[in-house]
Structure formats: structure tokens, C-alpha cells
Amino acid sequence: MTTAAYPVQGAGLGLRREILDPLLKAKLDQVGFMEVAPENWIGLGGKYGRKFREFTERFDFVCHGLSLSIGSPAGLDEAFVKQVGAFLREHEMKYYTEHLTYCSDDGHLYDLLPIPFTEEAVHYVADRIKRVQDILEQQIAMENASYYTPAPGSDMSEIEFIIAVIEEADCGLLLDVNNIYVNSVNHHYNPIEYLKQLPGKRIVYAHIAGHYNEADDLIVDTHGDNVIDPVWDILDIAYEHFGVFPTLLERDFNIPPVPELLTEIDTIIDYQNKHTQLAAANEK
Predict the structure, then answer these.
(1) Helix H or strand E segment including 34
(2) What is the rounded distance in angstroms from the CA atom of residue 129 to the CA atom of residue 170?
(3) Is residue 3 part of a domain?
(4) Using CA atoms, how far apart are residues 190 and 122, in angstroms rounded to an integer?
(5) Does the CA dihedral 107-112-116-118 come out positive or negative?
(6) 3 Cβ partners below 8 Å, 6+ apart?
(7) How many domains is the chain partitioned into structurally?
């Protein structure tokens, strides 16, 4: 279980069009909330729009964006931010999150690229986050992202950069547990030491997902497979260190039958219940 301090509660599931019909037919009692990318649903009508409304009337929702491009050298797309704001209000979304990356310059780059880890970039990105929050009139959260090569010119560590941006922007943290594991393998650091440095008071909710092993020292963050034990272990330690927070299962392709998805939701709940019970016992 989680507390009222968070915008949503429990264990969540990402809603994808491919599984709309199976999910509509399924019993989803253990699903506490759902998440969508607003870019995939803004202005959508017809049968998909009607089915989407069935879910938003049934579940609490959060939004996880794809194209805000917060670190882009190009100007902030304020018209797009206003579109997102209207979508959030229309569907009573509980929160909006994005990636601490960029994906555009003069045009869309079709990938999430790392921002240079520099003091100058901290100020630049934090100012843009604050502008988005001003337009939306609400706090947003940024996700610790996976990346495969450091951006040129970096003179800070990844963890130093993330903490500095979040504190200066006064925004939330979307904790991606799988990205911690992926980056720890690809960039050779201790994932638990990294985890424990994150500002727990800023966590809004978390993601957990599967990935693809390209090589022994290269993992690709695909969201296309089951969560592996080392990633579950990081979530377990995160709950122990920070307390229980809402956690969402991401699955973007190679999506299994709904019962298999719900098995992983049940695993999240098992970890949440374990640490809720431990915390209650320690208070006695």
C-alpha cells in the first residue's frame, strides 16, 4: 500500500492501444492506476476515444510524455505544452511526467538523447521545466533516463546532474528502476549506491520494466520483456530505503496476454505489502 502523499496509489499499468480490448474484458482489481503518453491520445476520437474514456472513468491516470524534449537546443514548444495541459484537465490526469533527455532540434530526432551533464545544462533545463510548470500551473516530474553514450562535454556525474536539475526546478522525480539497472551495467557503476543518492522526498511514482541484453556489457531499455530478478531487487531496496511508493509496469511491445501482465502487477503488490507490513511492525 502507498500513502495519500502520492498522486496515485498502488501498482499501475501502462495502457496501450494493442491491449485495449483484452483489458476491457479483464478483471483488473489489483491495478491501482494507469498511465498513457499524451501524444498518443490527444484529440483521439472514434472507437479508441470511447474506449479510452471507459478507462479514465474507471481508473486514476497519469501521463508520461515522449516529446517535450526538455533539453533541446530549440525553443520550448509552448503550444504543445498547452495542448498537454488541456488533455490533463479534460481527463482529470493526476500528474504529468517526462524524460530528462531531448529528442528534437530543428526537427524530431526520433530518439531520447542524453543532455550534457554540466552546470550550464542544469540551469538551462531547470528553467525550461519551471516554464512548463508555470504554463500547466502544476508541478511535473522528470524521469532518470537510460542512455548509451555520455553527451560530449559532461563534467558532472549522472546522479549529480539529476539531483541538481530536480532541486533547482523544484520538480518531482519519476524513478525508473529499470533505467538504474541498465545504466549501471552500461556505464559500470553500483546501482544501489546510485539509488540511495536520489532524493526520495521527490519521488512521485516509479517505473519498472524489462529490457534486452545486446551483449554482456550492453543492455537496451526496450520495455519488451519480463522484469528480471536484479531489477526486482532494486525495487525491493528502494522500498526499504525510501518507503513504499506507487509503481507502474511498463510494457511497450512484445506484450504478453493480460494474465501474464497481471502476474507482474501482483509481484509489485507483493513487494509493496512486504514493506508496508515491515514498516508497521517497526512502529510498534
Answers:
(1) strand 33-36
(2) 9
(3) no
(4) 24
(5) positive
(6) 244
(7) 1
The answer to whether residue 2 scores a pLDDT higher than 70 is: no
> What pLDDT digit, counting tens, does each position of 211-264 carry?
666 666 667 777 678 999 999 999 999 999 999 999 999 998 889 999 999 999
**For the chain, how many residues are written?**
284
Q: 151-157: long-range contacts at Cβ-Cβ below 8 A with a sequence spacing of 24 or more?
A: 151/113, 151/114, 151/115, 151/116, 151/117, 152/116, 153/116, 153/118, 154/116, 154/117, 154/118, 155/117, 155/118, 155/119, 156/117, 156/118, 156/119, 156/122, 157/117
User: What are the C-alpha distances in Å from 156 to residues 151, 165, 183, 265?
Assistant: 11, 12, 15, 36
The reply to whether the predicted model has a pTM over 0.90 is: yes
Distance CA(165)–CA(129), nearest Å, equals 9
> Which cell goes with 245?
511508493
As a whole-number percent, the residues of the chain with pLDDT over 90 amount to 74
5 in a domain, yes or no? no
CATH number at residue 81: 3.20.20.150
Checking if the pLDDT of 106 tops 70, the result is no
Residue 65's domain spans which residues? 11-283
Name every residue whose Cβ is closer than 8 Å to that of residue 53 and which is 6 or more positions away in sequence: none
Handedness of CA 134, 176, 244, 210 (dihedral sign): positive
Residues whose CB is less than 8 angstroms from the CB of residue 228 and which lie 6 or more positions away in sequence, other chains included: 210, 211
pLDDT for 150 beyond 80: no
**Residue 162 pLDDT > 90:** yes
Question: Which grid cell is 214?
Answer: 545486446
